[in-house]
């Protein structure tokens, strides 16, 4: 029986509820989620070599006979080492496994196996470090090819995902391509089926590249089309209740402890005149980290409330919602403002939620802080007229559809620190008017940076200890959440938050309070840790990039990033923006685990500049097309595969294609494009409706 994209993941034979739960952890619920769970990287499988030819630090496969049975030693609590010796005609080598005593049930003396893994020197002997046991069938299938490396989670191996992927792809009917052939020809794109096989199971690099191009193109295309729909809708929207200018806003500006920069003033004027006009505001405020966007948003909220309406302040994380809420509480107290704020987040108890929602619908509060759940769930407003979205434009698109469906017509103000060159911004923010805060407050001390290799760690720890002793705080960023054997591959070790925290506890003085934070923790725990950190009950916070956006703890002066080579420059710049927010000198230490020249050159850009726009354009220039999967991009504009910087050319193509398609549809179809139907549904339903694809 054929599978459908919308089927739950349990439609694959061998995946029951228990395994499905692991998939849910990776945000994979349906077959569609699975086949768009693209490889994070690929490994090239080379042929079997003789033990005599093994090279230290390389990944090799050997075919060898076990000459000793696996022996397990318990070296400390929760840590065992299992070793054995194997041989082939050319020599012997040792094999070592950590915490895998059960391997003895799979390896028997006198039998031959294929082992594949990294070669190390241990006690001066050539040793294979935790190799995979590969069946001859699997080896034959993979040798000479690029083998996908999927993002995994505890309980779910790459092998398991690969197997599920094959079943899903074979079970689906992928012949129906929603990008018609003439368009595929014009933009040199393979068809859907070929692209999906080519991204998951490519024979070679070229096949993977072209497949990826098609899938990126498609992601961009749908995104741009949905933006075009929104833009069309927005220009038709009339503001039936223009606001009036409020003197108290100017008073507030004048009583702030600092003077607004000229750029802030200019942007505020633009917002003010939007809200007073007869059209709805759809505005993006773009400004580098630390340029002072929050106060501009607060002014807009204040103006809305003074006009007797409600305003919502939406942010991507609960932690950030809480932070904004508390800083507004402070303002209210300080200046005696008539704002009545509430905080609505997932970690409230059911009873608290009910009470807050009641206040929102009754209008007894006028500023509502929360995550995007604010306008999705069963929240009804008394009179919502302004939605501020901080740091989350990608959500913005969908959110506005939701708002439109709810029949609410608020002004929209989107705040973003993602530094995007103008040409890209015009495409990605095509539905918005753009204001730019292109100036930082004058009183800032520039952050001191260094880019170093792992040898520098000891010094870095001493430095952190010194800053902490002086009453400052530090962040340490690791790319992974927890240790994962599958991820070792032929790449440098990726530091993980859980183990690293222990490592730091061992390295730093006992008095230093260290805690960790990552995206897989529950919201309550995350909030708690963030509050403790903000209250300075924690000195060093080891975290994944969840703290990347918006977090404001001015007492933090050190940002140390491990595996800096794994992150995009724009994202590193964003991370750096978490320090240097107070009056103390701040420092940023980027530790790279590779000393390859191009990586170092790329990271050095951060050393030379603190300007987000310059950094993102350099990032684009330095990251060649060969670098497809190695780098993580920043949280915003996170497409599954596409990277707005590196795939700028594809983005441009998709933009052209989208314009052509849009015009063709609008001029040929009686059915107007409707934002309530996903574009691809529309696309499929109307495919045969007379659009001449050959000529567009
Ligand atoms: P971002 O643009 O990254 O969101 P914030 O709005 O969080 O930046 O502002 C960062 C810090 O700068 C805050 O502590 C804020 O109070 C302060 N700030 C904002 N505007 C000014 C200004 N014109 N002069 C001095 N400090 C400012
Ligand atoms: Mg901000």
Describe this structure as you would to a colleague.
This protein is α/β, with parallel strands linked by helices and 696 residues long. The chain is 38% helix and 19% strand. Helix 6 packs across helix 7 (205-236), helix 9 (262-275) runs parallel beside helix 10 (293-306) and helix 18 runs antiparallel to helix 20 (612-622). The two termini are 38 Å apart. The relative contact order is 0.10.
Q: What is the CA-atom radius of gyration, in angstroms? A: 27 Å
Structural class: alpha/beta
Biggest sheet character: 7 strands, parallel
Q: Overall mean pLDDT score?
A: 85
Helix/strand layout:
Layout: H1 17-25, H2 31-35, E1 41-44, E2 59-66, E3 71-76, E4 79-88, E5 91-98, E6 112-122, E7 125-134, H3 136-142, E8 146-149, H4 158-171, H5 181-186, H6 192-200, H7 205-236, H8 247-255, H9 262-275, E9 282-287, H10 293-306, E10 310-314, H11 318-335, E11 341-344, H12 350-362, E12 367-370, E13 384-390, H13 393-406, E14 411-416, H14 422-428, E15 433-437, E16 448-453, H15 457-469, E17 473-477, H16 497-507, E18 514-517, H17 523-534, E19 540-543, E20 556-561, H18 569-576, E21 587-592, H19 597-608, H20 612-622, H21 648-668, H22 679-685
Parallel strand pairs: 5-7, 9-14, 9-15, 10-12, 10-13, 11-12, 13-14, 16-21, 17-19, 17-20, 18-19, 20-21
Antiparallel strand pairs: 1-8, 2-4, 2-6, 3-4, 4-5, 6-7
Helix pairs in contact: 6-7, 7-21, 8-10, 9-10, 18-20, 19-20
This protein binds adenosine-5'-diphosphate and magnesium ion (MG).
